[in-house]
Design brief:
5-stranded antiparallel beta sheet; mainly beta; single chain
Length: about 110
């Protein structure tokens, strides 16, 4: 997955003739969401006797890809005066895995 960042700039003249710029940073971040339905415990134990892992054996439905943020290259709606700076940059992100035991409290484990 990847994250894309870009800026939009608004240039204006103040009442005393001074030229000012406002730069707004924008980005989008994708995420894949799915529901694991079957988990089996890994029977190996850590040095302290704790469980060291789980085997994920299935999921429900098809994982979905969602994007948080505005469409790439867009600026605040007209007539805001912001103009896209033609500088979108994409950064590759690592994966991650979160689990919940109650459907509300999520914990990152990867």
């Amino acid at each position: 997955m990847s994250e894309t960042s870009w800026t939009c700039t608004r240039t204006f003249t103040t009442g005393n003739g001074e030229i000012k710029e406002i730069v707004q940073e924008r980005n989008t971040t994708p995420r894949v969401q799915g529901l694991v339905t079957t988990v089996a415990r890994d029977n190996s134990k850590g040095k302290d006797g704790s469980i060291t892992g789980f085997y994920l054996q299935g999921y429900e439905g098809t994982p979905t890809l969602e994007t948080d943020g505005p469409a790439v290259g867009t600026c605040p709606a007209d007539p805001s005066g912001f103009v896209y700076d033609e500088n979108a940059q994409t950064t590759e992100l690592g994966g991650g895995f979160e689990v919940t035991y109650d459907g509300t409290n999520w914990h990152s484990i990867g």
